[in-house]
Design goal:
Radius of gyration: 19 Å
Number of helices: 5
Shape: elongated
Structural class: alpha+beta
Largest sheet: 5 strands, mixed
Strand content: 25-35%
Distance between the termini: 30 Å
Bound molecules: zinc ion
Number of strands: 7
């Protein structure tokens, strides 16, 4: 299971080489179960499906997934498993340096994931970002968790 600590690092190993896709006609779409793209022993961490579409300028990603994350309930302070679901709608383009070298303009430096100069796409980082974005702001083990104070002596 994923944890908050692991999500602040680099927990998902899913590097995908898009060079074959980029040699196909624009509009070509590849569909994968996310679990098949993850590294060894990580198959069960994220479920769902991801589609990669050659857009001409890069690759459009779409998909939906789910992951279980170990969180701490803000009321009772117990650890519990949060089922996080997310959707992906994202465009990825070649790395700015690569694009600049080819004379393209309009690329800006940010923390976006880009297609590397070796045509590798870090899907693990894209998945990580989407899971983090969909973590609950107020984690609760269950909606009616009574918390610490309200637990009486006879419970
Ligand atoms: Zn709780």
């Amino acid at each position: 299971m994923l944890t908050l600590e692991s999500l602040s690092d680099d927990p998902l190993d899913a590097h995908f080489n898009v060079s074959a896709l980029l040699q196909q006609p624009v509009g070509t779409t590849l569909v994968y179960p996310i679990s098949t793209l993850l590294g060894r022993d990580q198959e069960s961490l994220v479920s769902g499906t991801i589609r990669l579409i050659h857009t001409g300028r890069g690759v459009a990603l779409s998909g939906e997934g789910a992951a279980d994350v170990l969180l701490t309930c803000m009321r009772c302070l117990d650890e519990y498993c949060e089922h996080v679901t997310f959707t992906i709608e994202e465009q990825v383009h070649p790395e700015p340096r690569f694009a600049l070298r080819r004379g393209a303009v309009g690329f800006e430096e940010d923390d976006e994931v880009h297609i590397g100069t070796d045509n590798t796409l870090d899907l693990g980082e894209i998945l990580r970002q989407h899971i983090v974005l969909h973590l609950p702001l107020k984690p609760l083990c269950r909606a009616d968790c009574p918390g610490l104070e309200e637990i009486g002596p006879d419970v």
